[in-house]
Write a structure and sequence with these properties.
Length: 295
């Protein structure tokens, strides 16, 4: 009987060697896009999680390895169609100086290589890992700017309402919250976009791993926006209270240093709470065995 906890051993050695060779060729051909991505990961805090995305994608492959038990490595030439799409995207990026298409073409290229080497069964096994690599690609500037402004507005208005609810004098003017003795500017860096990008990557990764119905996985992935907003609003509200009752120096230190470290654990706790509530609200039906009928 085939083991469910090991990589497929039925593949010939030549296929493993060919797979490694093709993988090396793909990495070599995408050397420049990877170099550009690494530069942005190192210099833009919103996308510093990009270094961990390929690592988690590799873990997804290992986690789903049982799907390849018994696979014979029978490939399909339909993968050339996906590689053709990737080549077309790279041609447009190069010819029309539109580099935004360069990095995303890697996903189509990897999918095509997988289909050629292992067929559709291999693609069913690997598609979550390939799709997850999208999180290592920074958003285009137009999309990032379009998201940042609404996030700033929601964070400012919601934090002001929360402060007023707790009896603290607060007035929102644009993206600035005026307090009794201070002002808090919800600038673009504090809009919550960084938290949104990071936590969306985490929740989507969690949705691939948890054993829940499909609609629950989708719900968990979508909830990343709400959780990121809640944690950012909480951060701004706590900072306002510190400004009013403790002092500006401590409030600034908490806002820019400590809160940045605490937001991720707080968001993770909210995700765990959400999963707990879903497990209590919705109980899956028991898998009952058919009753044996005796003559």
């Amino acid at each position: 009987m085939t083991s469910r906890t090991s990589w497929p051993t039925s593949w010939p050695t030549s296929l493993w060697v060919g797979s490694l060779a093709v993988g090396a060729a793909v990495l070599w051909s995408y050397a420049e896009p990877f170099k550009s991505l690494a530069h942005r990961w190192m210099n833009e805090p919103d996308y510093s999680h990009g270094f961990l995305v390929p690592v988690f994608a590799g873990y997804l492959l290992w986690h789903r390895r049982a799907m390849m038990d018994g696979a014979r490595g029978v490939g399909s030439w339909w993968g050339l169609l996906l590689i053709g799409v990737a080549a077309g995207m790279r041609w447009v990026a190069s010819y029309y100086f539109y580099p935004l298409l360069d990095a995303p073409s890697l996903l189509f290229c990897l999918a095509g290589v997988v289909v050629i080497l292992g067929g559709w069964q291999a693609l069913r096994w690997s598609w979550p890992a390939i799709a997850y690599l999208m999180f290592m690609i920074p958003l285009p500037g137009v999309i990032a700017s379009a998201l940042s402004s609404p996030l700033q507005k929601v964070a400012t208005v919601s934090s002001t309402w929360l402060l007023q609810t707790f009896g603290l004098p607060a007035v929102a003017r644009g993206h600035v919250i005026s307090l009794t003795n201070a002002q808090i500017g919800v600038v673009e860096a504090c809009s919550g976009l960084r938290m949104l990008m990071l936590f969306t990557a985490i929740t989507v990764g969690a949705s691939f791993l948890i054993e829940r119905p499909l609609w629950e996985k989708i719900f968990v992935a979508i909830s990343a926006l709400a959780i990121a907003l809640i944690t950012n609003i909480f951060r701004i509200t706590v900072t306002a209270f510190l400004h009013e009752y403790v002092g500006k120096e401590l409030a600034e230190k908490v806002f820019h240093d400590l809160a940045g470290w605490l937001m991720m654990p707080a968001a993770t706790l909210l995700l765990m709470l959400e999963l707990h509530v879903l497990s209590k609200l919705l109980i899956p039906p028991e898998q009952s065995k058919p009753v044996m009928m005796l003559r």
